[in-house]
Design brief:
Creatine Kinase, Chain A, domain 2; two-stranded antiparallel ribbon; 685 residues; 22 helices; disordered C terminus; 9-stranded mixed β-sheet; binds magnesium ion; binds adenosine-5'-diphosphate; single chain; 17 strands; alpha+beta
Length: 685
Amino acid sequence: MGLLYLGTPLHWDDAKQYADHVRTHGITQFLHIWDNLKDRYGDELLWGDEVEYMVVLFDNEEKNAKLSLRQTEILAKLQTITSDIATDTGDIGSVPTFHPEYGRFMLESTPGSPYTGSIHDLLSVEKDMRYRRHLARKYLKPNEIPLTMTSYPRLGVPGVFTEPYYSPEDAVSSHSLFVPEEITNPHARFPTLTANIRRRRGSKVAINLPLFIDEHTPRPFVDPTIPWQRNIYPEDPEAKQGAALNDHIYMDAMGFGMGCSCLQLTFQSCNIQEARRLYDALVPIAPIMLALTAASPLWRGYIADVDCRWDVVSASVDDRTEEERGLKPLKENRFRIPKSRYGSVSLYIADEWLNRTEYNDIDAPYDPAIFDRLTQHGIDKALARHMSHLFIRDPIVIFSETINQDDTTSNDHFENIQSTNWQTVRFKPPPVNSSIGWRVEFRSMEVQLTDYENAAFAVFVVLLSRAILAFNMNLYIPISKVDENMDRAQKRDAIHTQKFYFRKEIFAYGVVSPLASPASSGTTSPIEPNGTSGIPRPKEKKLRNCFAPVPPPPNGDAQIFGPVEEEYEEYTLDEIINGKGESCPGLVNLIYAYLDTLDVSPDEFRKIKDYIDLVKKRANGSLLTPATWIRNFVRSHPSYKSDSVVSQQVNYDLMVAVDEIERGARKVPELIPPIFCKSSSVDNI
Ligand code: ADP
Ligand code: MG
Ligand code: MG
Ligand code: MG
Ligand code: MG
Ligand code: MG
């Protein structure tokens, strides 16, 4: 989330007059950053996570678990507390930061300063996350608890699901049939974003998730909880006019998507080239990690037949008009746009020979005038395509006070477009006048119920990112196949039911797998596990940046590739993560090979291994995903009627259980390995 300006937001009718102004100046601002920082080199690995929480209020008399709408007061309190701690300890850097989020029941936390590449920092992630949660817990009311649930099971049900209660009839921004105005952060940016998306689109957003059909689910399922006949807002009839599908869970507001929580990671790169290379490598990893972290099977009081939030969030901010969605001929609008502005990445961006043009094989419209402007400025086609693709979108929120900016000192217009393109991976240019370098943000993962799991996935991805760079891994597959993987990742129990496209030969040409036996290796990898070449290399003290670039193609000839379709195959998650014979080494084994290049003590190694084991066991099915665990909890609850409904009582008991799991008070060995439960209690902070 960007900075929150105080100011007067424009209604869509006014804001749209400034769309070209914002885009033009946004690009000017980007070019200014480019001119100053394109050659910036040598930034160390700094990285950090973002964890999002939902504040749940337990009404133990009514046995109702509701969303607490006290975000404003809670954040003010936490800001006072954290600045007091900083003053007391004189240590501003390590004091966590809490941020507002879309939902008025949400909080976001980040480490006070980014982690470095030290092993110490790697092993401090869990402690840091738990400290943040501990602070949030401590300064909430006694019956309020910050839970890391990806979707809130009863957001938008009839009756009381927030504290205090508000009627959805007052939803002046979203016009929702289900969620009141007050679930949205009151800062002007958020109601305006909500209303302007609806206005630009020309209707409410329409989200239909397939319902999980259980033994006693009525068929066809015509949702009795939709107020079909309501007649307050002009869009109220949309539901009965076809927006709400039978056998689906229908949702109609931004809050259903942007009210979800997730786990994000940001990595600083050595330079722009390495950032672009890492960005591309993480694109095919995004659906894999989404499937492994699946945590959101419950929506608006029902069990869904999907396990993940992604498509809900995507549809919840889909501001495309009917013309842009291809339902009408283009007249007012300039482009047919295949995806919502919250969507999977559509273009690879590395300016390297490994990035074959054939991989960018889906329709990714771009603004030709912006593309020309960027290329005439000397920017290569791959990056120009990326930026001019992001810039087909309109700015949704414009504050009248910040229309005119100094493009040499502000990046606000650039960020207006950039940060409302919510994709699986984000390429983040350095902010103006800061010490921050080129960064890549990994955005697909669902937040986990415990910080042990959140830390495990953070540690896994940062180590994987280093293994990718250190071993010159080539993970490219066509973007169309990554998109297919995104669909599969969200399917119920994807781990057991789906296969995923993945590259067969995952080392760049001229690079030998670090797992290859010494006899078979001709050329060598940039970092060799000890012993590969017979000469032990000194072990490195830290995770780092600035790896050797991908070697040039043999004989300088990039025409060594065969047909793209022969480069990939379908694998199970177990095969991708844990390996399948020689052809598919398994990401976990590459992480171990990378760890072998580091100076880690046996004790540190054991701790890292515990984290990697979680991912390993998710992939091989020996541990459940949170989605499966939550689904099973509901379906085996004594009061569940096998009718796909998540009642108030089931939800209450589920939230109690989630809180107990998080505190280590409830053992769930099918979800969390016992080793964690010992160390998890908040008293250990
Ligand atoms: P956003 O919401 O825009 O994605 P946040 O400020 O919420 O961004 O989170 C950014 C994350 O990046 C935090 O975890 C923070 O610790 C981390 N971070 C901050 N500075 C750097 C840096 N120079 N390099 C890498 N990560 C950084
Ligand atoms: Mg956030
Ligand atoms: Mg953030
Ligand atoms: Mg931010
Ligand atoms: Mg968010
Ligand atoms: Mg983020």
